[in-house]
Structure formats: structure tokens, C-alpha cells
Design brief:
This protein is an alpha/beta fold. It has a 4-stranded mixed sheet, with no helix packed on it. A 3-stranded parallel sheet has the order 1-4-7, with no helix packed on it. 12% of the residues are buried. Helix content is 20%, strand content 40%.
Amino acid sequence: GNYVQQDEGTLSIQIGAGLNQDMVNIFGDATLGGTLNVTLSNAFDIGLGHSFDILYASMVYGSFDNLLFPIFNGMTFDIAYDLNTVRLTVVNAVPVPAAAWLFGSGVVALMGIARRRKAA
């Protein structure tokens, strides 16, 4: 049948080594909303770029409104939706370009403050 997750619903998924990984296999359509809560079930070797299919359906509609992902060894998950699969991929917890942008913005702001003080 079909799977419909309302806004107040939560889907909890555990990611682990081998057969310790949860996957929802729907023999119909999936309409997503609410919260996705991902946890790690046990310690295992997980690295950047590893992907985990967590949901399969005939068609996937919508997306989760709230994502609760663990941070482990400086990594976390990114989510991707396609026509019939929801996939988690391991990524850096703070993407390097975003961190560089934040640092650069702070430096520019401090330079602006220093100029104002010098001019006054």
C-alpha cells in the first residue's frame, strides 16, 4: 500500500554495518512530511561519500520537513530524493566552502569596523 507521513509524524531510521541498517520498502507511493530522525546503531567504519538508501517506493512525493542527523567524526548526512528512492550520503558536517565564506565574512566585517574607528 501507500505510505503517508503527516507533518506531526516521525520516521526513525538507524544506520549501521551490514544488515543493521533500516530501510523502508513501500509497495506503493510515499508522501513525505514531518521529521526524519537518523541514528547510528553501532560503531562501524563509515566514510565520506558512503551512501545509504533508506526508503524505496513506486513514487516519492514531497520531502521531510525536519531532518535530525547525528554528527560523528566531523561528518553527518546529506539527503537526496529521486523518483522512487530517498538516499543519505555522508558529508562533512561543516562544508569547507561554507566555513571559508563565514571566515571571510568575519574578516571583512572586522576590517570595516577598524576603518570606522580609524576615521573617527
